Amino acid sequence: MATRVLDQPHAHAAAHGEKTGLWSWITTVDHKRIGVLYGATAFIFFLMGGIEALLLRIQLGSPENTFLSPDLYNQLFTMHGTTMIFLAVMPLSAMFFNYLIPLQIGARDVAFPRLNAFSYWVFLLGGLFLNASFLFGAAPDQGWFGYANLTSKQYSPGLNVDFWMLGLQILGIASLAAAVNFFVTIVNMRAPGMTLMRMPMFVWMSLITQVLLLLAFPVITVALILLMYDRFFGSAFFVPSGGGDPLLWQHLFWIFGHPEVYILILPAFGIVSEVLPVFSRKPLFGYAAMVFSGVFIAFLGFGVWSHHMFSTGMGPLADTFFALTTMLIAIPTGVKIFNWIGTMWGGSLQYRTPMLFAIGFIAMFIIGGLSGVMHSSPPADLQQTDTYFVVAHFHYVLFGGSIFGLTAGAYYWWPKMFGRMLNERLGQLHFWLMLIGFNLTFFPMHFVGLHGMPRRVYTYPEGLGFDLMNQIETAGSFVLALAFLVFLVNIFQTWRKPRNAPADPWNGATLEWAIPSPPPEFNFAEIPTVHGRDALWEQKRQRGGPLPEPARVSGAGIHMPNPSYWPLVTAVGILAFFVTLMMLAKIGIWAVIASFALLLLGVYKWAYEPAG
Amino acid sequence: MLLRIVGRCSSRWTTALCLLALVLAGCGSEQYPQTTLLPRGDFAKIADDLLDTTVRWALLVFVLVEGVLLYAIFRFRGRPGDPEPHQTHGNTTVEIIWTVVPALILAAIAVPTVRAIFQTNAVPGKEALTIEVVGHQWWWEFRYPEYNLTTANEMHVPMGRMVSLRMGSNDVIHSFWVPQFAAKRDVFANRETRMWFTAQVEGDYPGQCAEFCGIQHGRMAHRIKAQKPEEFQAWVAHMQTLGAKPAATAAAPAGNAKYTEGEKLFTAKGCIACHSMVAVNSPKGMVGPNLANVGARSYLAAGTLKNTDENLARWIRDPQGIKKGVLMPNLGVTEAEAQALVAYLRRK
């Protein structure tokens, strides 16, 4: 019956003690440690992206400001976008994939643990590579979307675009490897009885996200290779004077770029769908509708890319097609919002910090969704596109949506990951500061955009009426910064306290709450058997009350993969390959060949390493 | 005052939006010369009407859904010792309702949208005034084939006559934006894009490039001067005097030493390599803006500086200090030389 074993200490004691020390982190293949590494690294990048945003806001705080030079402003807005998307929100989602997917499906690790370590190292090195550009005074300055033909050698002769193009290529490798890994893990490694339609909603949204990654990233990879040929080897795919077409870049970029938006938001959908039922003490409303609306959103996500390009003048038929598909996406998105409210309806709502952030997510995401419908209409969008109205829209989706959702997840799973409960009062303060700061910063952008302020301008003249609203926005951005300062204080205080979290502090519905906090390396002493949705609630119901605190057992005899440093060697080989390629003219072809050899050595040693 | 401002907003729903905006900063043409919310041309009116339609539905949905959410937040707050709530898993009827109702709302937005898409993509007839727009890093070239005229950064249009824009780029992608009369359309080096509008209100309005185009994207502004037809014709007639042998030379005070000195410097300092002082039959796609009527323009360097003698001299001496990265180099012009060039450029 169910997972009886969970409350019976494992008989044999030995092995699987907690390993410590730097080397144990460098060679780790444990999905939980890799999850923590992803989270810590991404959070530091998130803070960097936030500081970049504050500098932008200071510059825009008054008209004709000279706080930042135009070239530095362009570098900072490019790096802000690139950092938040590729180095903050995506890897923060990857933290939750890593930590939670095996726990929620009742597995001991991911399908390919060393590939998982490889993904992390490539992500870390790619992020460092992108930011190293600041040291050369050559941070990317062409926008996160890198529109051709501004990115051609003629108009961007410096290293700036090279850093961006190769940095994104490196990060793409990490994302693709991780997507293969999680896809296989979810499809193959679910505990007995966990059918697809019994999976927790976070696992469902993760699965859909992996499919999007697998289909979208190859497109940007190809586009970046074409751009690399244009810049390094003199081809002209995107160069009009050579017969190329800059519009081709826009199509390739947005065929990747729009699914990317769902890659950024679907994990947050999943997190919120876990948090709301637990703190409403009621199952998720309309589970099947939630699954299929997610699938539908992902499918339609590949058919709307040109709504980013209405102003290019594609003609009435293309405009009509992409307007209608874009409007269609609002239907499954609306279904999700209604189902979340349906989950709360009739419940017994517990306003702990994760729940506040989850509700904040719903409230803010509604606004982002509605402004999205407003510019799905091409003639209206011709006024709105490339103005601050769009900046307001996607921050309501990606900050009001993704960041609120991810923060809800951080407070919710913190006790599971670190064995400590975050301070509730500081958490509530964090929430209110973030809600107020967020709206002060981004709500006026709707108006300043409709009143004619374009995006990506390093300054604006007096007399256009933009001054006051920009001042409010700048003030709001500092309230937001304060909110995250409170979060940092909370993390720091919690860190210094002894471990105090029980296995199941929130009366959780899913399997991760059945095992100790933090979980042992092998997760489950015995793989559980699942008999329904909300597997842990099911167990508690059968038992007629809460489960006893699970004992920590040794896990001797449980086979776990050996640590390995070859994934790191391979990742270093990839970085070296791209760096030497960028400096080809200076250091010659042999350096490129040598670093490629290092890459091959890593792969070879990895492949023939004893499995342990 | 408030009512007067609101009364000038074009329709009920823009009014609602303006009222919201008033809370923040007020709403009037004086405060927001670049606003999209007070359309003064037919194309912009189509966009604004669609905005009204979507805002109407969006506000309705916003109030309803956020209202229900707020109600749920207060109505269903848990208290210690509450029994476990009823464990519902879903309700097919309400799920069908909240799928179908949004679909109907979207249909109500889609129908006028599709109509407007075809309206805005219509090709203007032969009676329209064609203006060629060429985007440059970081200024705009305007050409009037009907009159063989070229000018830069300040577009003159006659009220009441449709203007047909045929647009391209000399380098990277830019986006030409006329918020008061039309909307925006990107320009490319390898394809022609089009937009049209009819100015219905007289005035001198700002606009600016809307597609990121390099270091000085923030300083690529233009002006649209909508004039009464007779004033526009007078402007055309004046421009046509600025030909290869400008009448202005004759008009210049005879024996003005400064003017003659400036004319020489225009060649000697190399200005002539990128700029033309000829408005009639001037070649297309020169590196720098046409300067034939620079003396009459409101701004210098694509909206960077107000057009005064002092600013013009400053600009000639130190363009890189004023607009970093601009394609015009610092040419080592002295103050006295700059004064002479100003005299020549102003034709005085």
Description:
The complex is a heterodimer of chains A (612) and B (348). Chain A is globular. Chain A is built from 18 helices and no strands. Chain A has helices at 22-26, 31-60, 70-104, 113-132, 160-188, 201-233, 246-280, 287-300, 316-344, 353-374, 378-384, 388-418, 424-450, 467-495, 535-543, 566-582, 584-587, 589-607. Chain A is mainly α. Chain A folds into two domains: 4-9 and 37-561, Cytochrome C Oxidase, Chain A, CATH 1.20.210; 568-612. Chain B has helices at 2-8, 12-24, 42-75, 92-120, 229-240, 247-251, 257-268, 309-317, 319-322, 335-345, and strands spanning 129-136, 139-144, 149-152, 154-158, 162-169, 174-177, 184-187, 193-198, 203-208, 221-227, 299-300, 305-306. Chain B contains ten helices and twelve strands. Residues 1-10 of chain B have low confidence and may be disordered. Chain B has a five-stranded mixed sheet with strand order 3-2-1-5-8. In chain B, strands 4-10-9 form a three-stranded mixed sheet. Chain B is an alpha+beta fold and 348 residues long. The longest helix of chain B is centred in the first third of the chain and has 34 residues, at 42-75. In chain B, a hairpin with a 4-residue loop joins strand 2 and strand 3.
Which features would summarize this protein structure in a list?
heterodimer, A: 612 residues, mainly alpha, Cytochrome C Oxidase, Chain A, 2 domains, 18 helices, globular, disordered N terminus, B: 348 residues, alpha+beta, Immunoglobulin-like, five-stranded mixed β-sheet, three-stranded mixed β-sheet, 18% strand
* Number of DSSP-assigned strands of chain A: 0
Mean pLDDT of chain B: 90
> Total domains of chain A, how many?
2
Structural class of chain B: alpha+beta
CATH architecture of the largest domain in chain B: Sandwich
Tell me the CATH topology of the largest domain in chain A.
Cytochrome C Oxidase, Chain A
Low-confidence stretches of chain B: 1-10
